[in-house]
């Protein structure tokens, strides 16, 4: 899961850079939206990963 999170964050950065480089405002907005979507997906996966770790810790307690 960690690799997927890193991959999504990398794609978000690429889309953000492309949004800054493109001259067309409509395309720029679409790329910014794509960047936000990738970032959101990475954040969701990260929170699920944390929740899973917390659940495992609680299950191991006596």
Structural class: mainly alpha
Shape: rod-shaped
Low-confidence stretches: none
Q: What would the average pLDDT be, to the nearest integer?
A: 91
**Helicity, as a percent range:** over 70%
| Count, helices | 2
Rg from C-alpha positions?
A: 16 Å
Helix-strand string: HH
Structure description:
- By secondary structure, this protein is an all-alpha fold.
- Helices cover 90% and strands 0% of the residues.
- It contains 2 helices and no strands.
- It has helices at 2-21, 25-60.
- Helix 1 (2-21) packs antiparallel against helix 2 (25-60).
- It is rod-shaped, with a radius of gyration of 16 Å.
- The relative contact order is 0.16.
SSE diagram, text form:
Elements: H1 2-21, H2 25-60
Helix pairs in contact: 1-2
């Amino acid at each position: 899961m960690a690799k997927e999170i890193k991959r999504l964050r990398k794609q978000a950065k690429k889309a953000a850079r492309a949004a800054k480089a493109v001259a067309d405002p409509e395309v720029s907005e679409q790329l910014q939206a794509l960047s936000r979507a990738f970032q959101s997906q990475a954040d969701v996966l990260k929170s699920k990963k944390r929740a899973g770790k917390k659940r495992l810790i609680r299950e191991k307690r006596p």
